[in-house]
Amino acid sequence: MSAEITVPIFPESISEGTVLSWHKQPGEKFSRGELLAEVETDKVVFEVPAPDNGMLTEISVPAGATVKSGQSIARFDKGVNTKNVKSEATTSTVVKTTFPASTATVTVSKTAPEKTVSEAAAVMPAAKRLMDEHGLDARKITGSGKGGRILKEDVARQIGKNEIEPEPETEPVKTKPAVAKPPTTRPVTAGERPERRVPMTRLRARIAERLVEAQSTAVILTTFNEVNMQPVMELRTRHRERFEQEYGVRLGYMSFFVKASVEAIRHFPEIGASIDGNDIVYHGYYDIGVAVSTPRGLVVPVLRDADRLSLADIESGIKDFGDRAQNGRLAIEEITGGIFTITNGGVFGSLMSTPILNPPQTAILGMHKIQERPVAENGQIVIRPMMYLALSYDHRLIDGREAVQFLIMIKDLLEDPTRLLLEV
Fold it and tell me: Does the pLDDT of residue 171 top 70, yes or no?
């Protein structure tokens, strides 16, 4: 029986998307929950899973085409048997197990007992794709998802482990041949000035739109200061190893800046407020956005109720956001909202910059590279690890006095980080 494959239902804030890629072609079979296509919007990438077992018969919307929410993009023959798929290799058998929302493929040697259906671990589509790219075996990965399902994060963790402690090879491993860079169509002679034109991704176009909006609607000023990072660095050095053993995550700098920002906003609530027409909206919560750079562009996932989070909670949340942002797997609700944003250009080596507002927010804090510089302390010149801070703000709502005092409070809290723990 023929059935349709449709685009997922978008949230109200998203009107359309673009088919990013197809993972199956007409004539190929699939199981329920298996990834068929991906649709890129101006905020996130949506996966199109198989609604049932079947075989793809027609792709009506090719990659690169624009689609609407719920639109039909392909057809498939429903109920086609996808079990007992034979491997081309003669030394192994492939057993494909279908779960309600995922498919696990386990390769078993002829000499070894075959895994039963109940023993096979469920593999989520994104995790399966990453496993295939790195040639990983599902039997060697421990799933942390519901019912032991293998998530993308589990695969990424295994990849990192293999890079540090590679497993001994018991048999020759087939590796993909190195892919050489495609040759140019013709040699470029001296004096030529070649150009290449590519369309903007939806995310990049949306970023451009919001930046223009910020520049044209807000009165943006930036105030600067510098902070001695030595107290925070010493605190991290003393407790980093125990912190990582206890919580399973590295103690970075961003958690200190998030904590300091929350405390400073408590004292200067207009920094976390927004403008709605002729009204000023003061928010009674502390949702802090953290800018993350991805191959598709900049996204700002939001730490909800950051005032209630510990340093470990903040670091875990940021790491999770960063891992999933690299592959466009953030949910729409995770990158919307927020009352204040922190961006760290220092990871790329930026010494000083003027960050641009993230509308409708009215302030954004810029972190920069930590660099040793001579400073005067108690009449003596000493070398300290210093960082420039930048606070861009909307002068329609925030005056210079509040902006400067806010930034000074951030500086004071970071130079005496015990205040963050005591909340004084």
Answer: no
Based on the residue annotation, tell me whether 399 is a catalytic residue of this protein. Answer: yes
Question: Which residue of the set 305, 395, 412, 416 is catalytic?
Answer: 395
What CATH number has the domain bearing residue 134?
4.10.320.10
Whether 233 and 265 share a structural domain = yes
State the total domains in the chain: 3
395 carries an active-site annotation? yes
Is 365 found in the same domain as 222? yes
Residue 109 clears pLDDT 90, i.e. is over it: no
Strands (E), 238-339: 274-276, 279-281, 288-290, 292-294, 297-299, 302-303
Rounded CA separation 85/66 (Å): 34
pTM exceeds 0.85 = no
Q: Which of 132, 137, 305, 399 is catalytic?
A: 399
Q: Is 268 helix (H, G, I), strand (E, B) or coil?
A: coil
Segment 214-234, tens digit of pLDDT: 888 899 999 999 999 999 999
Pair type for strands 363-367 and 340-344 = parallel
Count other Cβ atoms within 10 Å, centred on residue 121: 21
**What per-residue confidence (pLDDT) applies to 142?**
80
The three-class DSSP label of residue 58 is strand
